[in-house]
């Protein structure tokens, strides 16, 4: 018999329950990718994600080709494509992995029902998360809204993960009528993607390489170094996790093995890192249980918050890294150039947008959606609502990040600032953090004066918050 394995955001061969199940129960497998961005509702992949997707699919194609198997790519309505291929191949089963975005859940539910109605075995699996969002609940059988108890509960479930190997019995089938990858038009027409190509290697192998580098080096110092944007102190696995090129189970297993193989006196503590992966699980838990939060405030009290009117010129200065605040501009330029931004800097640029400029967090979330290679509806929603103060377990609204003191603390020598602000590269640290203190430096460098006064806008933000609470 033949099975279709419908690849979506699980672009790997190892620890792939759908592929393993298909290979175990069927003689032949048709690996399929369907390009149907319109089925993702308001959240079709942005430009940077499309770039990643193209290269990740190319990597998967190459990996399958090494095993003599082709990836069949199609465009169009997913159910129609599946029906056509079932008829064309005589396949009796379709296997896939679950997604957690509201549009994908609705589509997949319909497809599963439609296939089963016609006697096709349609089966979905979990490959992206340690635990399904509905498996973890409070004692009152409600979803969690606070991270720490969620994590405590999830941590006890992790156990000793045994990721699946690449199935050795994989035998593919050829089907006519596929679409070449290039025809999907995922790569930009104007080539703005050079920086992305320099920074990343999409695909399962690229993910494994990053994990190796992290496990060899940065994990030992993660709890401290993760806050320093000038260092490669984090794993940078976020885009690989988003596209399912590596699973949290695999990461956990490999790090645990590494710990076990290390001399007891030099064993790295992997708990702080696992906890960050726990935030990813929490974000998926929240998105699943509160599916309108990509655009609606998690905390309805924020519906009464007085945002400033949308200011396109301000938004553009923020997007382009021309605010005149060095750490904000460095972060926004890192994002534009590499499709990624350091977590601490994400918090600071988001705080500047929501609090100092009082532009709605949705504007920021949209820009990140289009420019991040790791743009992820669950994580991005959690991140923006956390900073805005409107989220579940969010930063208190009155905590306004000061981008100057943050830079002085986390980039004291200014290596990060200099990397992304070449026009200020020769300014020594005290001035590099506050270049407006030297009018001649601004003139000479062409670096803009601050677009707003940090102190005054902080006070205005706190006033707006107070009036929301009073109202
Ligand atoms: P590491 O420190 O190595 O962490 C390992 C993994 O844990 C990450 O790859 C990620 O999957 C997960 N993780 C870490 N921190 C968080 C977090 N705070 N929330 C959820 N998961 C986390 N992350 C995304 O993957 N996609 C997004 O679209 C996204 N948008 C964000 C927007 C804002 C405003 C903020 C403040 C944060 C956002 N994050 C997002 C979370 C975080 O910044 C990134 O996951 C992290 O910087 C990725 O780098 P890393 O892989 O080196 O992280």
TrEMBL record:
<keyword id="KW-0274">FAD</keyword>
<dbReference type="Pfam" id="PF00875">
    <property type="entry name" value="DNA_photolyase"/>
</dbReference>
<comment type="similarity">
    <text>Belongs to the DNA photolyase family.</text>
</comment>
<dbReference type="GO" id="GO:0003904">
    <property type="term" value="F:deoxyribodipyrimidine photo-lyase activity"/>
</dbReference>
<keyword id="KW-0456">Lyase</keyword>
<dbReference type="InterPro" id="IPR006050">
    <property type="entry name" value="DNA_photolyase_N"/>
</dbReference>
<dbReference type="InterPro" id="IPR005101">
    <property type="entry name" value="Cryptochr/Photolyase_FAD-bd"/>
</dbReference>
<keyword id="KW-0157">Chromophore</keyword>
<feature type="domain" description="Photolyase/cryptochrome alpha/beta">
    <location>
        <begin position="1"/>
        <end position="130"/>
    </location>
</feature>
<dbReference type="Pfam" id="PF03441">
    <property type="entry name" value="FAD_binding_7"/>
</dbReference>
<dbReference type="InterPro" id="IPR014729">
    <property type="entry name" value="Rossmann-like_a/b/a_fold"/>
</dbReference>
<dbReference type="InterPro" id="IPR018394">
    <property type="entry name" value="DNA_photolyase_1_CS_C"/>
</dbReference>
<keyword id="KW-0285">Flavoprotein</keyword>
<protein>
    <submittedName>
        <fullName>Cryptochrome/photolyase family protein</fullName>
        <ecNumber>4.1.99.3</ecNumber>
    </submittedName>
</protein>
<dbReference type="InterPro" id="IPR036155">
    <property type="entry name" value="Crypto/Photolyase_N_sf"/>
</dbReference>
<comment type="similarity">
    <text>Belongs to the DNA photolyase class-1 family.</text>
</comment>
<dbReference type="InterPro" id="IPR002081">
    <property type="entry name" value="Cryptochrome/DNA_photolyase_1"/>
</dbReference>
<dbReference type="InterPro" id="IPR036134">
    <property type="entry name" value="Crypto/Photolyase_FAD-like_sf"/>
</dbReference>
